Amino acid sequence: MPDVLAVQPGFSPLSHTLNSPARIFRRFFAISFHYFLTSSLPLFHAKLLLMLSSSSLSRFRKNLLAWFSQFQRDLPWRRDKDPYRVWLSEIMLQQTRVAAAIPYYLRFLERFPTVQSLAEAPPQEVLRLWAGLGYYSRARNLQKAAQEIVARHHGIFPQTEEQALALPGIGVYTAAAILSIAYEKKLAVLDGNVARVLARLDAVTGDLRSNGRWPKLQQTASTLLDPCCPGDWNQALMELGATLCTPRSPQCRLCPVAESCEARKLGLAGSIPEKRKKRDTVEIVLASLVFIDPKGRTLLLPPPKSPQKSTSRADVATLLSRMWHFPTIEVHQNAELELRQHTHKLFPALANLHFVPAPKARHAVTFHSITILPFRIYIPKLPRLASARSLPLADLSSLPISNLTRKVALSASVPSSM
Ligand code: SF4
Question: In 36, 220, 263, 326, which residue has its Cα 20 to 30 A from 418's Cα atom?
Fold first, then answer.
């Protein structure tokens, strides 16, 4: 057990195990009273802030910062506070796990070591290095922002919140994270991890994004922010949420701020925050056309420029992440027939094509659950189409493609029985 518990007077791990009738009654009463308070008030009261007198607030900060300094993970973007690197890491970490982001981060920096080099790169090259990370608008906005930074801020990430928020892809959370870490600006971050920690510290029940709870949490985050080291403070709270105060099974016994935690005291740590109601899943069926010539080469179409007009439930271009892709349609009734009609429109000169079904692939994008039905067409010579590219089916890595397209290629590569 780390030393952090040594600085938590009054907290005994054993106290969780004492279940005398009086204790059970006291706990039942405390929880009931807490629910009465929080469910009957539209906005929760920041009990944590009331509880933390100035001396206990300073101990709270000291404990968390000491824990962060001792236990923080060694992550590549923590090795210096270069604003470009901090910015890149914050964008990559949106919707992406740390372990998944690291190799992309290192590759990206090797190819684009400066804002200038990113601003001047061919957009397809930026997307190619992003391919596989998903949420490709992040890469597109990153490059647009780099171009603005070069044009308006001499190639250096701006230092004011207003200027940062004016850049593509930068929201309130990202601006606060970059400016506090890179420039020590006194801006408190509030993302899902931090919100969970704060909600537990204050035993805030209910959906954190409704009934004005989020702005209240932002206020709490701002009040707790240590003005001496905003960058480390923000990272410490995020680190606590990512490593100990996790969504499931928070490790309260190791927590550096356990003594100030209402949820732990009430036995509510595991049930806060309340799970958000998930949007209903929309099932989509797509069919993709995979040409294969005798050399194993195939044909990809360029990124679609604007959403395809359709009455469909899904925008196919968006599902393809607006990247290089196989000819693809949404299926309404008969996959092969509809794909044949689409193929005829694209390649009117081709006739008597034999469609060979490949194993279906599954993919999920946000609330879309997608089934893809790839059809192979073995053809002596790939058809020509303006701006389409031919390349080996077994290695599409020279072009930026989405994970969906990668799965289609994989399915189509499974040996056919014909
Ligand atoms: Fe999270 Fe537990 Fe620490 Fe409270 S005591 S902040 S629930 S890890």
Answer: 326
